[in-house]
Specification:
about 400 residues, Rossmann fold, Helix Hairpins, eight-stranded mixed sheet
């Protein structure tokens, strides 16, 4: 804050109007002089990545910090339209390699814009050092660098996401978007694995040969299991990359109660079937205020700060700020062993009551039913039927005292 009020607000807005003071402010910000890079990606276009990018950057600028918003969408840099500024000139390859791209001011004090073109992201990784654009981003003057990566799984997009301090995936409650999010996570793992082996060509060739025997877009856990059968050390390296992945998830455009439940269930399915710790940060409700502000070419937090969607974005933004101040690992360990107990099948502990077993069985049957959104592209129909049979077995066994006692003893 400067002079006791947030920056970048409309003149007619008061502190209470913005929601920054109605809602709990972040308890701690990164110290001045440090820098945090936040990347927003996740696969499919139209999911709301630009919405979250712009308003997250506005929120950070309103806290009195210097923010650079980077438009790294290879399909077309257009964040300037949302911010109400003219299209900036794209930087050349030479300016990026020199570390001197030009940023432009926006109507929001403390917020500047840098538009990257497809040529910038074409700068591929080099063995033993970060690629040129990643080094350039770290040289930008700003407390926060917020990147809109756009759709897709291009190598440059994946590398930017991996290099960020906080990476956010944005999806919507639609099968194509959810499938694209899972595809992004699987591609991100393979990209990280390949980059880790750039100095070890023999191992990289072995990985490529083994990947050739798997279906396209394999689950990361299946990749680790396949490597383990040929090279235990290589499998441990892959498992290490999987463990270090810490993507975050935001669900946009929710309408139904089941839509707001999508995030936690995607987090659970990602952990169980992909082995990826997908940390759910929150959801943004479908709101007419969003498209109205886009039409007006103004960020939501400035044009409609009291709308419900703006409040939900602020809640997510506070969680992102907390992540930038505490970068401790979450201690996640992927489960390589396929074998699950009947309690695992229902997501319960061994001391669960009969009522908890009934509720969990109902919840799991709904989750693994045909057309379940959180399972799009993860399981085949045959695998879903096998999971349902396992759930039925768990329900019948754990509700029968004699069978449950015998199972526990075994």
């Amino acid at each position: 804050m400067q002079n006791g009020s947030p920056r970048g607000l409309r003149p007619e807005c008061t502190m209470t109007d913005t929601g920054l003071f109605d809602a709990e402010p972040p308890s701690r910000l990164p110290p001045r002089g440090s820098q945090a890079v936040i990347a927003i990606g996740g696969g499919r276009g139209g999911a709301g990545k630009s919405l979250l990018t712009v308003n997250l950057a506005v929120y950070l600028a309103q806290l009195g910090r210097n923010v650079v918003i980077v438009d790294a969408d290879t399909t077309g840099a257009n964040l300037h339209a949302t911010l109400g500024v003219e299209a900036p000139a794209l930087p050349t390859r030479e300016s990026l390699e020199r570390g001197s791209p030009v940023t432009v001011e926006t109507p929001v004090p403390g917020l500047r814009l840098l538009a990257l073109g497809a040529e910038a992201l074409a700068l591929g990784p080099r063995a033993g050092r970060r690629s040129a654009w990643a080094e350039t981003l770290r040289k930008l003057t700003g407390d926060f660098i917020v990147l809109d990566l756009g759709p897709g799984v291009a190598p440059g997009t994946l590398d930017l996401f991996s290099a960020a301090d906080v990476g956010l995936c944005v999806t919507v409650p639609e099968p194509p978007a959810i499938e694209a999010t899972y595809s992004f996570l699987k591609a991100l793992f393979l990209r990280r694995l390949r980059r880790s082996l750039m100095r070890e060509r023999f191992k990289l060739k072995l990985v490529e040969r083994l990947l050739g025997g798997l279906p396209p877009g394999p689950l990361p856990l299946d990749v680790v299991r396949t490597l383990e059968r040929s090279d235990t050390a290589l499998a441990q390296m892959a498992l290490g990359e999987l463990t270090r992945m810490t993507p975050r998830l935001v669900v946009n455009a929710t309408r139904l109660r089941t839509d707001s439940d999508l995030g936690p269930t995607m987090q659970a399915m990602s952990d169980r079937f992909l082995g990826i710790d997908l940390d759910y940060l929150g959801h943004i409700e479908h709101d007419d205020a969003v498209w109205l502000t886009v039409r007006r070419r103004r960020p939501l937090l400035i044009d409609s700060p009291t709308s419900k969607s703006a409040r939900l974005i602020e809640r997510i933004a506070r969680r992102v700020v907390a992540l930038t101040t505490s970068r401790e690992p979450r201690g996640h360990t992927p489960r390589i062993d396929r074998r699950l107990t009947l309690y695992d099948a229902l997501g319960l502990s061994r001391g669960a009551s009969d009522e908890e077993v009934r509720r969990a069985s109902k919840r799991q049957r709904e989750l693994f039913s045909p057309g379940s959104l959180p399972l799009v592209s993860i399981l085949s129909e045959a695998q879903s039927r096998a999971e349902q049979a396992r759930i039925d077995e768990a329900h019948d066994t754990l509700l029968d005292p004699n069978r449950r006692r015998a199972y526990d003893l075994s």
